[in-house]
Amino acid sequence: MNQDNKISAVYPGSFDPVTNGHVYIAERAASIFDELTVSILYNEHKSATFSVQERIEMAREALKHLKNVKIDCFEGLLVDYMKHVGSRVIIRGLRAMSDFEYEFQIALMNRQLAPELETFFIVTDPKYSYVSSSGVREVFHFGGTVQGLVPDCVFKKLSERFNIKN
Ligand code: COA
Description:
alpha/beta, five-stranded parallel beta sheet, binds coenzyme A
């Protein structure tokens, strides 16, 4: 809860780029919490296709219909960022059981670091259960269609980046 008694949540991730699966999770989280911050991880150890600024712009455009959502970025530990923005709720999406093991470990690590934080899992729409950012990039790169899997602004950006008209 922040100073206005509003419950805020943070949806962190790489979002390289944001997909319709991410949009779905953000829509559901935004319908439950008063404020949602979608926060893009700047990770120097993970090579990214899009810069943080590009990822921010795509996420901003893709989520502009959600009035209680803002886009931000962070580096370092998520728990430190959560303290910095004054939120206690971490949102993560689950696509399949295989996500669960990974997410469970992250959630427990974060609880060890900051017991006051809570991780909320939101289950994806089955139609996005196989969608990932790297999958989208690869399919697009080799000429496959990703329409319906990414927001229009991301489709446009992928076309520019890979100089392909799929
Ligand atoms: N729809 C579509 N794709 C989804 C998805 C959904 N609902 N949920 C997850 N994904 C995909 C992403 O597209 C991404 O795919 P890719 O690897 O093929 O590009 C993959 O799942 C990983 O998801 P992402 O949310 O980007 O996770 P991450 O592992 O890069 O980052 C953080 C997770 C940001 C929560 C975590 O790394 C973190 O907090 N890092 C900061 C450092 C820290 O605090 N560490 C301590 C905790 S361990």
